[in-house]
Amino acid sequence: MRNRTMAWPEFAIGLSIVVLVFLAYIGINVWPIVIAAAAIGILAFAAQYRSKATSMTDGSGSARSKSRSAKVQSIGFNRIGGQDRAKHELIEALDFLVRPEAIKKFGIRPLKGILLTGPPGTGKTLMAKAAASYADAVFLGASGSEFVEMYVGVGAGRIRSLFKDARQLAVKEKKENAIIFIDEIDVIGGKREGGQQKEYDQTLNQLLTEMDGLYADETPRILIMAATNRKEMLDGALLRPGRFDRHIQVDLPDKKGRQHILELHTQNKPLADEVQLEKIAEETFGFSGAQLESVLNEGAIYAMREEKEQIEMRHLSLAIDKVMMGEKTDRETNQEERRRVALHELGHAIVAELVRPGSVSQVSLSPRGQALGYVRHQPQQEKYLYTLPFLEEQIMISLGGAVAEEMFYGHRSTGSQGDFDQALNIVETMVNAGLTSLGIVKMKHVSIEALSGEMNTIMEQLTTRTRQMLEQHRDTFQHSLEKLIQDEQLSGDDFRCLICESKQLPA
Ligand code: ATP
Predict the structure, then answer these.
(1) Lowest mean pLDDT among 1-10, 135-144, 237-246, 248-257
(2) CB 75 less than 6 A from any atom of ligand 1
(3) Residue 345 a catalytic site member
(4) CATH superfamily of this structure's domain 335-504
(5) 121 ligand 1 Cβ < 6 A
(6) Torsion of CA 410, 455, 458, 456, to 10 degrees
(7) Phi, psi of 377 (to 5 degrees)
(8) How much is the pTM?
(9) What is the pLDDT of residues 132-154, one digit of tens each?
(10) Is 80 in the pocket of ligand 1 (CB under 6 A)?
(11) Which CATH architecture has domain 72-190+197-249?
(12) Do β-strands 360-364 and 374-377 pair in parallel, antiparallel, or remain unpaired?
């Protein structure tokens, strides 16, 4: 039946074409009819599209709003690794939903919005879901990009429908609280500087209006949570007291946090006894929770591919490389290139071991992502402050590859581009922190000539120091080169043995 109805328009179009061809055949000018039909068709299509867009604004029938209100898996704070301070701050902020009587007694202004800020994959969405289950609230999640539409008013309509859905869902599930979570709030909440599109402004205005219309004594009580990686981009109106006035920083986890996250995500995985999560936590400095989850997942895939019963340390080590550097590529390098890459990587590794003994965790010649080889370093301890000597050493490690190529070939290659970028970024940090001979300066007041002059001087001085250091270890290069080319990979311990052996070689 349905098929027959759907076939009618096609049948009518077919018939019209036949009639037109017939009229043209008998000599009638059919162009006015064709043009009129095309115009009617375009108008009908536009009207239909417009009505679809508008129907989304009422919310009640939109597929989008239905998917948003789909039941989310309940997550407790105990499923979130690390982030102790952020969890604590969030739980405190949730008092507004959990202890409304006390809040009322003290005449405390109700909290309307909590903004979670921090790098991607650190668990902001998890936090919002955990907040909902802690406060026994219904949870509705949306992303800022869902509100972006070509048509003025559609985004604003979606905001309205989101709040309406939250209230309806809470009533349906007999809950007193609802939490609305908007991820990537910066998409709609960016600063309004006059140049913004009208549509964005309307969406943001609607969000502000809805927030202003929230009251502590209404049922259900609604709390808005939002997340962003770019807090500095947000419009002041969103951040003022009474709106998103509670800001919680969700940072990359420290070593203890990483270990906790690893423990949580290994609960459903068979691990070999030799696996030390503490060591993995040590080697994954700078990883987010999402990356740590990915390391365990990739490790499990490696173990499964090898038809092992359990995940071994080796699998996890490969998985760290994969998450850090990307998948192994099939780039075939010729023998000469391989030798150059090996010397380059040894240059990085030797400097690293000399300035920070015990810091190399792996030297590898397998091409991954954009790199033809790489050295994995093991941070010895978490650092939040960097001294001048530390930064200089870091630059020397970056320069080690290019210097090694110069020592053995007399010139550099394009393989050092990334290293130089890294080194120059560090020099920039040094300038910003007043650690250079430019003194304490504001970057915008430094002329390009002065800046590049200072950068050149620093890079040249450190290149000279790196060369002097590596020249004293030519033997180590020679002693390790063949082994690295042959095995493709040297563990940090193997590499340190090679350094010791080469020291004992006769001069
Ligand atoms: P984005 O800013 O990109 O939206 P996010 O900060 O919201 O990211 P989530 O979506 O909460 O990050 O986390 C993604 C996944 O990473 C989670 O599903 C979980 O598997 C893992 N994860 C991240 N942080 C943690 C954590 N602290 N504890 C446990 N798992 C975590």
Answers:
(1) 1-10
(2) no
(3) yes
(4) Peptidase M41 (1.20.58.760)
(5) yes
(6) 40
(7) -100, 155
(8) 0.74
(9) 999 999 999 998 888 876 566 67
(10) yes
(11) 3-Layer(aba) Sandwich (3.40)
(12) antiparallel
